[in-house]
Amino acid sequence: METVPNSVVNLNMIDSTFKVDKLTYEIFSILENNFLFGCTDNSKNSLSNFTPKDFNLEKQSAGKVRVLCIDGAGATDGILAAKSLVHLELCLRIKSGNPNAHIADYFDAVAGSGAGGILAALLFTRGKDGLSMFTAEEALKFLIDNRRKIFRPSNSILRRVLRLSASKAEKLFRKTFGECTLKDTLKPVLIPCYDLITRAPFVFSRADALEMDGYDFKMRDVCAATSADPAFVGPTELRSLDGRTKIVAVDGGITMNNPTAAAITHVLNNKHEFPFCNDVSDILVLSLGNGESHFNAVNSPSAVVRIVGEGASDMVDQAISMAFAECKMNNYVRIQSNGIMAKTQKVKSNKTMRDLLSVSEEMLAQKSVESVLFKGKKVVENTNMEKLELFGGELIKEQERRKTNILPTVVLKNVSPSPRTSSATTLSTLSSSS
After folding, report:
1. What is the dihedral angle through the alpha carbons of 267, 251, 194, 299, rounded to the nearest 10 degrees?
2. Nearest-angstrom CA–CA distance, 233 and 216
3. Which residues cross the membrane (predicted)?
């Protein structure tokens, strides 16, 4: 792909290596608010009330970037994460007093793999009214109504040969998303798959899609790619909007079942959209699991894929917990089933939708588990549901703080004249073109 020289300088796009004098920048921000945008409330922004020591609270002034991460299918085919989001959205509506609050209103970035990628697409793609296409309740219903079209249909040889389930899923995604592309998402979105051409992960990214059509894909293709179970429907071939980038994709859960690390990497390295996010203390992360599968025996390729994916999810959780260290209690929340409880471990492979809903409700009511450095996991007093409610309160606090904040926590990118590989997509952005 050709590189276009960067000919336009945007003041909002502050390079990570460019050091701005803090006091000068603060004064400029105050002047900008007072004179360029007509702010007349001098009691808050008057230079006479400003002292250099006020800027010592830079992190609090810049705020925290709010990131949502959703695992692949897990034992519940995405239902646990969907039910978690329904509960969180209800909490946000009650605590904010806004009955029309959407999940996308309270997060600055989202990453989802497999079933999580479909949920991310449903909740963060812009609808006709300019709001998110689906509420959390509607997204849960979507998974319930279409589970057999998307995830592991009957084990019939005929179905596998004719790929009937794949065509049903593709028709479903086409009907749902139409011609929407990654550019039509409300916030930065990351949805991984595994590219068989390059033999490497490929992350669909809104940030890169806004740079050039070679990184922009239709949302219906993105959902088909991240959920293409290699054991049942095989790989799916897709091309970018301009036709130049070709991918032969299978399930994102193979290499990135828990996309939290990719999401954090993206936010910390994307200085264009998150100019003041410098380390994990500047991020609020909600990571949603989908239950741990119960394997009596490893007797199918699909079972192997699930074991690998869920094992990788736990490793990512452990690593993220280590990275957040002292700020973990407030900044990183992981919702996952409590595998210590035997009842939870008995989620069978032939479960019905009623079973999945019942089990997911039990998982939310369980006491939560947290990773402990070099000590595995521990059970904590709060239930998963209580942790969601507490995290919802933090999201609302951050939302309210931004109403009076001077520094921009997020500067969403809309257009750009030059290509850029700014994020986690650098693992495999140069897929084969033909």
Report:
1. 130
2. 24
3. none
Distinct helix (H) and strand (E) counts, the chain: 17, 10
CA distances (Å), origin 399, targets 45, 66, 106, 351, 402: 20, 10, 7, 39, 5
* Residue 227 annotated as catalytic: no
Please say if 213 is a catalytic residue: no
Provide the whole-model pTM: 0.79
Class of residue 143 by CB neighbours under 10 A (exposed 0-12, middle 13-18, buried 19+) = buried
Query: pLDDT of 346-389, one tens digit each?
Result: 554 456 778 888 888 888 988 887 777 666 778 888 899 999 99
In this prediction, residue 75 carries a pLDDT of 83
DSSP 60-80: HHH--EEEEEE---GGGTTHH
Q: Of 243, 192, 198, which is closest to residue 222 (Cα–Cα)? A: 192
Rg for the chain (alpha carbons), in Å?
A: 22
Low-confidence ranges of the chain (pLDDT < 50): 1-60, 154-162, 341-345, 348-349, 416-434
CA 237 to chain CA mean position, Å: 23
Nearest to 364 by CA among 77, 75, 83: 83
Sign of CA dihedral 286, 77, 255, 226: negative
| Contact predicate 384/368, CB 8 Å | yes
Interstrand relation of 236-239 and 246-250 (parallel, antiparallel or unpaired): antiparallel
Residue 371: what pLDDT? 76
- 41 Cβ contact partners less than 8 Å away, ≥ 6 residues apart: none
Cα gap 331→401, rounded to integer Å: 16
| Residue 286 CB contacts under 8 Å (≥ 6 apart), including other chains | 66, 67, 68, 69, 88, 107, 333, 335, 388, 391
| CATH entry, 65-152+175-190+256-335+355-404, from 3.30.300.30, 3.40.1090.10, 1.10.260.40, 3.40.50.2300 | 3.40.1090.10
| Residue tagged active-site, from 77, 251, 314, 317 | 251
Q: Which residues contact 379 (CB under 8 A, 6 or more apart)?
A: 338, 340, 367, 368, 369
The tens digit of pLDDT for each residue in 180-235 reads 999 999 999 999 999 999 999 999 999 999 988 899 999 999 999 999 887 777 78
Catalytic position from the list 113, 240, 422, 428: 113
